[in-house]
């Protein structure tokens, strides 16, 4: 893979400075034999501080709270603190009451909650709780070499480990048996560790923070070793009942996550509008035209970086700032050259600062200071809240910024490894972590849509254009991608009350909204394993399982204990279970909601928080099961007045049966507190997923009108309607405006908990994968209806066809017995001009079960096939059903380019040039449809001459699931490989180029003169 311009520009500057700071002259002594601390020779107690001497070495224990203490070791007896007050905040208050005892072989240093044992011969530490249970224990004393100090701990039989900050491709599952690096490496891809944090936590109920800017290495083997590249030991320990408590203690020490403004949670756009090498001459005020396009495409936009590109600069800043504010967005700037001008920039309208690695100076302290200073610069010169973004930060940065994973290239693999990254970072107190949508370079409309949809369940994200060969705003890809992107951008906007409430919670607990399953389900043995690696939770209520392959089916979705509802269809699952074969067409993100959820939302499809008015409704999306609560947090969304108490909270309680039939009561408490712009009254809308219609709905004891249709409900000011066709059956309720200063209750009589009065009675609609239709040709689609615990009778199955398509009549089935499946075939004719490739459809079954009229739905995709080729056909001229590529888009009749479409060069192999062919970068997969009409594929294969001898790949041809031909390993110095493959009868052919040496550098494979001979 080619190195980005950005990385090349850093190599000679910042990287050398960091290497000098982190490695230092001690690197030559890295192989020095280690010295282990010896026997205790002296002991001193001074309040909550204890000092133990072991010859010339000294150890010091300082208690911060009943569960937190600091342990230091100075091999030469001279304590030092290079970090000073840069990371650890003043804790205030008095130290805890402690006491000590001499037990003969050890000293015991105790608070109310913990006892630290200091064994005398040799000095060795172990931590115990007040009930006598062991938390951790050293297997040998602290040790050091000329440039490293190491702690060695015993590992529990089932002990799991998390943390170390942002670890790309890892972190939301256990680090057990792995080695984790905490340092700068400028590797922003899978395996890199930007935004490292020298903190880890254990499932045994403790965490450790190394108070240093030096690189750390944690090896979670047996035993566990934790080393820092400095000849001093300085660590804080936190003991708690669980991971959330430990994260809370750690962030109390180093700072709670900041509270972002609401526009900071809306999507951001980063581009260069002045001196842009990829777009020609532009002007800063051109950013306003892009903001207008977001509005024209009905897409949310919270802020824009207008100078994101080396040498970009800006002009007319006050006009740009005001213009963006007039369009409902805020101005952001990339601080390529530092923050010396931030006061003037903020006064001109800047509200977001993106910090660059190029000026972080000689180490992480400079980067952390930059985060704090930029944050403070925004707040010192406006009434706004500070917001910064950084790709290389450290412990403490959570209190002033968003951490994002750096400059990457969009691909399916990019999506895959990012999924565990951000939830894993939450385990280190990083509440706001994210990556650019579809990366900066490369990507495709399909990977863009897939990447954007799951990132809309992160609190923050942005799209990045200033470095890319082409613009990457969410409306650039055309249909159906623009509509899919809009759907998820608006879902994120609707969920802002939920996400904003979790942002407030993070300021109290240190725990961000995006969470690994292990955080919420610590006793689930699968939560720490790869079974849960490619999914995460947003808050406690949403389980997100992104699609990270070019497929319409998602396998291996692990649902932990509880009841889970498919957000799109209403299908109910009982966990723990693993869902395979989940139908996920391009417009469908696998998304599940936990039973008991009460989710506050903004209804109406708004595109900005500024679209909210004094009369706007608040919606509650409720999945009733047992007793559950949610605390809605609100403030003015922009200023810092909330820090002085200008905010309000509203407590919601849902009381429902655990399962089966019964009444549901929803209590919405008074909104406690006040702030500028608070709604004094507002209408409410409720969606309750019951699966059964209630007999009556009352508001404060007064019956609401039952409306007999969706149209009547939409028209009415108040009332309720049971919609059997919406997600398995939901009750919709709307109210007149109600005072926010008064509590009220809503009661649904004779209905049911989530899953219906008869649990499991709901039928499921599924559609077999890999169904194909020809454009304009009559065909059939198979649909399966599976009855639940009760018979489904009077079943009618139909299709919701796109405009221009023709769907045949519904199929009818008198009865589907409980626990069985019936397949029906439905006629469907695609439009003559239907675009080849995936088309999302919906199948619906209306039926009666357990004395209720019900509807079940299934979203699925069919593949529209182009006409098969005739005669001789160049592979580069055919429709590509799939074009997965390792770096940038695959190229037609060009070599693989830098990152954008058509930026490659003439295909050249062994000095011979080719006018036709395909240029790719491993790993790649080009799929074409032959429909059984072709007999032979010929081509010349090799690594393009432009690579000048680098690279190592293998070429292969596959047809209908079988490998027809594989080349030997091919390098940049290899002879051209002739390709002559019999493809007789093949319908789908894949041309693949695979990396063979684990390095993607230079893997530019050419299918030169690739041609099919067809009938």
**C-alpha-based Rg, rounded:** 30 Å
Helices, by number, come to 14
Per CATH, the class of the largest domain reads Mainly Beta
Uncertain parts: 1-30
Q: Characterize the overall form.
A: globular
Would you report the number of β strands?
73
The number of domains is 6
CATH superfamily placement of the largest domain: glycosyl hydrolase (family 31)
**Overall average pLDDT:** 93
- For the termini, the CA-CA separation is 39 Å
Q: Bin the helical content.
A: 10-25%
CATH fold annotation of the largest domain: Immunoglobulin-like
The biggest beta sheet reads: 10 strands, antiparallel
| CATH architecture label of the largest domain | Sandwich
Strand content: 35-45%
Q: Which structural class fits the helix and strand makeup?
A: mainly beta
Family: Belongs to the glycosyl hydrolase 31 family.
InterPro entries: A-galactase_NEW3, DUF5110, Gal_mutarotase_sf_dom, Galactose-bd-like_sf, GH, Glyco_hyd_98_carb-bd, Glyco_hydro_31_C, Glyco_hydro_31_N_dom
Protein name: DUF5110 domain-containing protein
GO molecular function, one term: hydrolase activity, hydrolyzing O-glycosyl compounds
Explained architecture:
The protein is mostly beta strands. The protein has six domains: 220 residues, glycosyl hydrolase (family 31) (Immunoglobulin-like, Sandwich); 138 residues, Aldolase class I (TIM Barrel), CATH 3.20.20; 65 residues, Immunoglobulin-like (Sandwich), CATH 2.60.40; 140 residues, Immunoglobulin-like, CATH 2.60.40.1180; 102 residues, Immunoglobulin-like; 142 residues, Jelly Rolls, CATH 2.60.120.1060. 14% of the residues lie in helices and 38% in strands. It contains 14 helices and 73 strands. The strands form 14 sheets. Strands 1, 6, 7, 8, 9, 10, 11, 13, 16 and 17 form a ten-stranded antiparallel sheet that branches. Strands 2-3-4-5-18-15-14-12 form an eight-stranded antiparallel sheet. The radius of gyration is 30 Å and the shape is globular. The two termini are 39 Å apart. InterPro entries: A-galactase_NEW3 (IPR018905), DUF5110 (IPR033403), Gal_mutarotase_sf_dom (IPR011013), Galactose-bd-like_sf (IPR008979), GH (IPR017853), Glyco_hyd_98_carb-bd (IPR013222), Glyco_hydro_31_C (IPR048395), Glyco_hydro_31_N_dom (IPR025887). This is DUF5110 domain-containing protein. Belongs to the glycosyl hydrolase 31 family. Pfam families: DUF5110, Gal_mutarotas_2, Glyco_hydro_31_2nd, Glyco_hydro_31_3rd, NPCBM, NPCBM_assoc. Keywords: Glycosidase, Hydrolase, Signal.
